[in-house]
Design a protein that fits this description.
It contains no helices and 10 strands. Helices cover 0% and strands 39% of the residues. The structure holds FE2/S2 (inorganic) cluster. Residues 44, 46-47, 49, 68, 70-73, 85-86 line the site of FE2/S2 (inorganic) cluster.
Length: 108
């Protein structure tokens, strides 16, 4: 289990976790948006840095977009598509997660 469902609230702080890749442990995160949980590698599509400006702070002020703290790229939480900023048109790398029995799990 990555976290309890109650740990990730609508438009609230995201949950940081890691996934194992051939390259090693990669940072990842999940947020809840419009009721559903969405997860991505925590790596901006512009420069490969982590997005959150403080740990878990992924949303912009509107709570409608995920924002990169470094140069302000904004992403749709439900698709990972970059709608503005230096990497407009690029995407975050999605991770499959499922929510069941009060928990959120990686589905790989
Ligand atoms: S590193 Fe994210 S917008 Fe530049």
């Amino acid at each position: 289990m990555i976290c309890k469902s109650e740990d990730v609230r609508e438009g609230g702080d995201g949950v940081r976790f890691t996934v194992t890749r051939v390259t090693g442990e990669e940072p990842a995160f999940l947020v809840r948006f419009q009721g559903r949980v969405h997860a991505y590698l925590n790596r901006c599509a512009h420069v490969p840095v982590e997005l959150d400006w403080l740990p878990g702070k992924f949303f912009d002020d509107s709570r409608l977009y995920v924002i990169c703290a470094t140069h302000g790229a904004t992403y749709e939480p439900e698709t990972g598509y970059c709608v503005s900023g230096p990497c407009r048109g690029a995407r975050l790398e999605p991770l499959r997660v499922v929510e069941r029995d009060g928990g959120v799990y990686l589905d790989e």
